[in-house]
UniProtKB/TrEMBL annotation:
One Pfam family hit: WD40
Domain called Peptidase C14 caspase: residue spans: 719-942
Keyword Repeat: yes
The protein's name in its UniProt record: High-affnity carbon uptake protein Hat/HatR
Keywords (A to Z) from UniProt: mRNA processing, mRNA splicing, Repeat, WD repeat
Source organism of the structure: hydrothermal vent metagenome
Family matches, as CDD domains: WD40
Lipid biosynthesis among keywords: no
Matching InterPro entries: Caspase-like_dom_sf, Pept_C14_caspase, U5_snRNP_Component, WD40/YVTN_repeat-like_dom_sf, WD40_PAC1, WD40_repeat_CS, WD40_repeat_dom_sf, WD40_rpt
Gene Ontology CC annotation, any one: catalytic step 2 spliceosome
PANTHER family assigned to the protein according to its UniProt record, in alphabetical order: U5 SMALL NUCLEAR RIBONUCLEOPROTEIN 40 KDA PROTEIN
One record GO biological process: mRNA processing
GO terms of molecular function: cysteine-type endopeptidase activity; RNA binding
Length: 960
């Protein structure tokens, strides 16, 4: 259910904002994707089997969660207008879970029905004159009810024609004098109950034309209502905290509960009643007895849903966190939350490092805008400017929530509608102050006269700071923006995550990011109302927009146009020689590049989830491209299909169009199939097709020999490389060889519980010369099958030379024999062709005893990790350190900190966080990261990256 305050604002603002134009449909815009909701969750629903949870939010997204795996399955987008346009307030799921209806603040106040089996077809229902507040399907799936902020309820007849859903308006229900907040069908589909801000409920008999029964025991706004599962009762919740039970004829029965706070939402299943308030409250519907409370990690809930499998989901908080409980154990099962880093205030130093803190205490970290690198230590920074309220005899002082005194005779008056409340303010110099509000950031003279407005953000400015003609502003969505105060030009935006990944981009789309930061922004193209929006991760267009020097120069010069000329003329001082020049088309019109991405249309399988009784299937898809197609790969669970590697560009159906047709032999019980396509502008993967191998009735009973037994245990292949003793003593390390040996031993021991055969190769010290390393990687390509697992462990030195990353083998000599290095690109290429899952653990940024010949090379691993873990290459990477950090080793540990953390996590089972006997990649990542930071006193920060095409990955099973 939508939040009360938000809807009030929407009802007003819908009258003053300009209508969205269809001409904007092909305009690509950059949007943030924190891999979860970034705004209030307004409604929730479980699928009929309880396996998936669907949520909608102020952030304009539909998120579908895999409850068992505890992860985001996919995201759907419908419309992303300016400000609140596009916010989704209501959803309803058809009884068979095939169709999802959503509504909210859309440009035509329409309802959109999405086919979840394809995620493509949308039916649009028009008729409401204001924002949609609630939706509900009837139990027979033949009717849809909708309500809006004017109090109107509409009934729609839902039909099917040639497998396509249709909707026609049946009748309009009028009677409420204020907005309707919730509606609910009776199980027999013949009655409908509605709850309104006019303080009443109304019970509608859908078989008659008589006036509804008015139910008026609440003394304030009624925010929620629901029929019981058997249809005998109606439950309602009000703003004063009263929960009332009514009979099916609308007669008052009793006060069921009083929680002393507004009831945001209610959910009923059998005798179980869940009330959504500041937390979840459990009550017995029949006895009114409290069955306890469900604690939540936020101050107030906004929505609740209950599943047929006795799960309950509660959403709340400004960032849209969702917690899922198992009602049988009353224990939390999953937590879905934004990966946004919590930031309370910001500052900027003389060397243009933006610093931030999650409290009002000292700054903890920062982003250096000159080098575009993450800064873990801020105590040595000089001249940090923060929000400054007093200087040179005048003081800024808030008079009330809309008025700021400038300290002289002047004052700044905020317009409640245009600016919102006063949220932040600072002195820039003797002549200028900056004032941030809910909706604006403006510059004024010290007498309070308006100078200019800084634009380019979507939420309240909560902290600001200024230095050297630059002003930085922290938005409520936790993005940080940098403007030129002289010209008011927005220069760049920064987004940071709780795992310290980050991305910084210009308004034109150029960006630099940490190794895992690219996935947090993307390009969205809004289509017509009957089509879902297109969304492309920023990495799809990396060849066009990943241009760090453009970002640096834009911030440094204070102008994108000047930066563009500097880079083109070669006048910039570059950190490396492989600088990417601005693409003329990209800088002129990013939408032209984004719209040139290949379009992949599935033919077979047609449906998103498909069940198969035997392991062979021929897939078909049509690829349309605006430019020549360079590469096609078929991926199964993120890895190249073993019988389709090196797919030739298939049958041509047009100059730049192809038909992909390939027989696949599946070896997994669950197979997520995608098609990777690269053209001149983009590299992208298709939507997935999930092919489940059904339990073949007579496994082994007359089956042909070419049918794979997909329940066979996999083999484990371990390649462990550890080099402590180099030909040149100045390169020597202490424990790299011990690390490699110990990792092998642990996986050999634990792996016998999971894997059929364990094939391990150790290359230690003199065994690990360049040729031996290359041979070992090549050997894997002749043995590994799709069902297997490959583990690579590398402990050595690594260098970054002219933007390319290399591993130093035992026989390395960078001065006399610079060619004796192992190219990370070559390693990635070899491993990317393996059909199995591949995990690479790399500790190749050792501090050790760095000699003069080695320290002149950088060791930044960012681009190496980014490339290897891309959707194209599909490797899972666990790296001992981030960026240019060194990895630590000491005699006290007898290992590197990273390796010690892995050994503890697996051998001692400490990484089994849940615990359920299985250590998943996410659990190992969490334990290794936290433990390494603890061991090194926050000096070393491991990072784990995986492609989006690989979901939950189990590392070891401790119980088998």
């Amino acid at each position: 259910m939508p939040v009360v305050i938000k809807l009030k604002q929407i009802v007003i603002s819908i009258l003053i904002l300009a209508n969205w134009s269809a001409a904007n449909a092909q305009n690509a815009r950059l949007v943030i994707d924190p891999q979860a909701h970034a705004g209030i969750v307004n409604d929730l629903v479980f699928t009929s089997n309880g396996k998936f949870l669907i949520s909608v939010s102020d952030d304009k997204t539909i998120r579908i969660w895999d409850v068992e795996k505890g992860m985001l399955d996919r995201t759907l987008r419908t419309f992303s207008g300016d400000g609140s346009e596009g916010a989704i307030y209501a959803l309803a799921l058809s009884p068979d879970s095939r169709f999802l209806a959503v509504g909210g603040y859309f440009q035509m106040n329409e309802i959109r029905i999405i086919n979840l089996e394809r995620d493509t077809e949308v039916v649009v229902l028009k008729g409401h004159s204001n924002v949609i507040t609630s939706l509900d399907f009837s139990n027979d799936g033949l009717k849809l009810a909708s309500s809006d902020a004017t109090g109107i309820i509409r009934l729609w007849d839902i039909g099917f024609s040639d497998g396509v859903i249709t909707g026609t308006s049946e009748k309009v229900l009028e009677g409420h004098t204020a907005q309707v907040y919730d509606i609910s069908f009776a199980p027999n589909s013949k009655q409908l109950v509605s709850a309104s801000y006019d303080g009443s409920l109304k019970l509608w008999d859908l078989t008659e034309v008589e006036k509804p029964i008015s139910m008026t025991m609440h003394i304030d706004k009624v925010q929620s209502c629901s029929f019981s599962s058997d249809g005998k009762w109606i439950v309602s919740g009000g703003n004063k905290g009263k929960v009332i039970l009514w009979d099916k004829r609308g007669a008052f029965s009793k006060f069921l509960a009083s929680i002393g706070e507004p009831v945001r939402d209610i959910a009923v299943l059998g005798d179980e009643l869940i009330i959504s308030g500041s937390k979840g409250y459990r009550f017995s519907l029949s006895s009114s007895v409290s069955n306890g409370q469900l604690a939540v990690p936020f101050s107030a809930t906004s929505a609740v849903a209950i599943s047929s499998t006795n799960l309950v989901a509660l959403a709340g908080g400004a960032q849209g966190t969702i917690i899922v409980y198992d009602l049988k154990s009353n224990e939390p099962l999953q937590l879905f939350k934004s990966r946004t880093q919590k930031i309370a205030r910001i500052g900027i130093s003389n060397d243009t490092t933006v610093v931030f803190s999650n409290s009002n205490e000292e700054f903890t970290s920062g982003i250096n805008l000159s080098s575009l690198s993450y800064i873990w230590e801020t105590t040595k920074l000089e001249g940090i400017a923060t929000e400054n309220h007093e200087e040179n005899g005048y003081k800024l002082l808030p008079i009330d929530k809309y008025t700021l005194s400038t300290g002289f005779s002047g004052k700044v008056e905020m317009n409640p509608r245009i600016d919102g409340r006063l949220r932040s303010f600072t002195i820039i110099d003797d002549e200028t102050i900056a004032v941030g509000g809910d909706y604006s950031l403006k510059l004024y003279s010290r007498e309070g006269e308006f100078k200019t407005e800084l634009k380019g953000f979507n939420s309240a400015i909560t902290s600001i700071a200024s230095i050297n003609n630059r002003i930085v502003g922290l938005s409520q969505d936790k993005t940080i923006r940098i403007w030129n105060t002289s010209t008011s030009e927005l220069l760049a935006t920064i987004f940071l995550t709780s795992k310290n990944d980050w991305i910084c981009w210009t308004p034109q789309g150029y960006y630099q990011a940490s190794s895992g930061g690219e996935k947090y922004i993307g390009w969205q193209i809004d289509e017509e109302a009957n089509k879902p929006s297109k969304f492309y991760k920023s990495s799809v267009f990396a060849s066009k927009f990943h241009a760090p020097e453009m970002v640096k120069q834009t911030i440094g010069t204070g102008s994108f146009e000047i930066a563009k000329e500097k880079v083109k003329e070669g006048k910039a001082i570059f950190a490396s020689s492989n600088v990417k020049l601005p693409n003329k088309e990209a800088s002129a019109k990013p939408s032209k590049i984004v719209s040139a991405a290949p379009v992949i249309e599935w033919i077979t399988p047609e449906l998103q989830t498909f069940e198969l009784n035997q392991p062979k299937i021929t897939i078909k898809a049509k690829v349309k491209s605006a430019s020549k197609i360079k590469l096609v790969k078929i991926l199964i669970n993120g890895r190249p299909s073993s019988n389709s590697r090196g797919v030739v560009i298939p049958k041509s159906v047009g100059e730049f169009d192809i038909l992909v047709e390939q027989e696949l032999v599946l070896s997994n019980e669950i197979n997520e199939v995608r098609i990777f396509v690269a053209n001149q502008e983009a590299k992208m993967v298709s939507e997935k097709r999930v092919i489940n191998l059904a339990n073949a009735g007579a496994r082994g009973q007359g089956r042909s020999l070419d049918i794979i037994n997909y329940m066979d245990r996999p083999d484990l292949y371990i390649l462990s490389i550890g080099i402590s003793d180099y030909v040149l003593p100045e390169y020597d390390l202490n424990y790299a060889d011990d690390d490699a040996g110990s990792i092998t031993e642990v996986f050999e021991k634990i792996g016998t519980k999971v894997y059929k055969n364990i094939n391990s190769t150790k290359l230690l010290n003199s065994e690990a010369d360049k040729q031996a390393i290359l041979d070992a990687f090549d050997n894997l390509t002749h043995k590994v099958q799709a069902k297997d697992m490959v583990l690579i462990f590398i402990a050595s030195h690594g260098i970054n030379k002219e933007g390319k990353f290399f591993i130093l083998p035992h026989d390395a000599d960078l001065i006399q024999k610079p060619e004796v290095v192992v190219s990370w690109k070559d390693i990635t290429q070899t491993l990317s062709e393996l059909p199995s899952n591949v995990i690479v653990m790399i500790d190749a940024c050792r501090s050790g005893q760095l000699g003069v010949n080695l320290t002149k090379f950088g060791a930044n691993n960012t681009e190496a990790l980014r490339s290897a873990s891309s959707d194209e290459n599909g490797l899972v990477l666990m790296a001992a350190s981030t960026g240019s950090e060194s990895a630590l080793e000491t005699p006290q540990w007898g290992h590197g900190a990273f390796t010690l953390s892995i050994l503890e996590g697996i051998e001692k089972g400490k990484a089994d966080i849940k615990p359920d006997g299985t250590i998943y990649l996410r659990e190992l990542d969490f334990y290794v990261s936290e433990r390494t930071i603890e061991l090194t006193n926050d000096v070393q920060h491991p990072t784990t990256q995986k492609p989006s095409t690989i979901s939950r990955l189990s590392i070891v099973n401790l119980n088998k």
